[in-house]
Amino acid sequence: MADQLIRATAADGGIRVVGAITTRLTEEARQRHKLSYVATAALGRTMAAGLLLSSSMKKEGSRVNINVRGNGPLGQILVDAGLDGTVRGYVSNPGVELPPNNKGKLDVGGAVGPDGYLYVLRDIGYGFPYSSTVELVSGEIGDDVASYLVTSEQTPSALLLGVFVGAQGVTAAGGLLLQVLPKAARDECLISLLESRIAHLSGFTPLLRGGKSLTEIMEQLLGDLSLSIIPEVQMVRFHCGCSFNRVLGALKMLGEAELQDMIEQDEGAEATCEFCGEVYQATESHLSQLIADLKAEFS
To answer: Is 252 found in the same domain as 137?
Structure first.
């Protein structure tokens, strides 16, 4: 099934629902960054969370950055996701691997670490990004992002995230976000009902692996609560806006002396994009042209 995102409402507009399938983009990230099993699960969950959070933004060009910094061996997780359905991300230590946790699953919480912080920055396109910081709850990503939504946005939320990765790569990944909006937030019976149903789910990726579509999963959870699925399906994908021209622009900012040293010492320069792993090579002639451009600008 193609990577996609769909939106819905339930309980007469009192519940907002967003679901995403991110299998292919997570596999692309795994291959680009040469991720271990547990690193794939951690980054895949965070990328799905980024897409789900950005889906509620309104202005074209809006983006969300999620930065997870725990005390585990995985190091930092950084994800950038946009309203346009694009996402990119990386982890500091992609080769980290851990034994399964006591439930026999990939130990994302152990890799991320239970102590640390989750940083969320929302750029809504007006030049004044909104940032928020919360302490990690478990390091499992889903719990941590849900805690952010409750703490920073005062929105009761449930977030299901999952990545299934085996010997052949990622075969299922995605997430489901349910939010109780202000008009229904005081309905304790409704909130209890949602909590009960979510608790009885076997997980998100088992449903995908069992052949369930996003709409079928939503129907299973909320079909009797006036579920209304918005017909528009948004395609989502791994995409990084880096380019060779941007690399040259960054090198140019180093100045004439540093560029000349690169020519003499290294016979060129190499730059790797952390977000996508793309490697760019700048030759001596490229660097010489940058020096010439700098001299022309200041002549």
So the answer is: no
